[in-house]
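tmp note - Prepilin leader peptidase/N-methyltransferase
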Amino acid sequence: MTDLPVLTGPTLVAAHVLIGLLGLLIGSFLNVVAWRVPRRESIVSPPSACPQCGHALRRRDNIPVLSWLVLRGRCRDCGAPISRRYPLVELATAVLFVLVSLRFGVEAPGVWALPAFLYLAAVGLVLTVIDIDVHRLPDVIVLPSYGVTVVLLAVASWATGEWGSLLRAGIGGLILFLLYFLLLVVYPRGMGFGDVKLAGVLGLCLAWLGWGALVIGAFSAFLVGGAFAVGLVLAGRAGRKSGIPFGPWMVAGAAIGIAWGDTLWSAYLGLIL
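out:
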């Protein structure tokens, strides 16, 4: 296989900037997905429009973040307020894309894993927004992610020759799926089957990186999610029976596992051994 060109200096910075700009564009699309998928609407038609007056958005009003700032957060036609969530999702996607590109790099061999983890970042963010809104993780997003993730990880394994990573990914995805399924059976009020299905996707990506990433990513979800729930109870904003979506914490835990999983796992093993 022909080696990819080596990027240095300004070219390397430019590559990360371009990935950030791609994140802004993807974030704009994720806003559409987060709004329409829970309502069982098409994500391709009709064109985006103001939910108050129904006027279709002009092209110049569809520029990520910038259009919201120019319009001062209001519809050009009727003056209705536009939620701050739209530019925040766009910015969050851009930041996540840049962080992922910094984590894996934009040169070989890390660049081969970049598409899989950029996809995971986008899917994780939109599922977080939807789960917060409606306490659901739609199958129409989660189930196709199995196929997309396996294909992208397979390409990365083929390009790097790390076929053992792909095998580990399959085993890890199955383990995390079964773990969440067992938790659902034991304590069905604690999570939904959507969480179980998402666990398999997250397990694929985490285990592809290593067993340490899988263990830390899985444990971190319960750690940060539990800490948040306890905080809400102590603040009087939730009770013991309050329903708190767990999907966002699964995604947050996976992010911790991807960023620092193997390092934290090695440090832990060093302490106990």
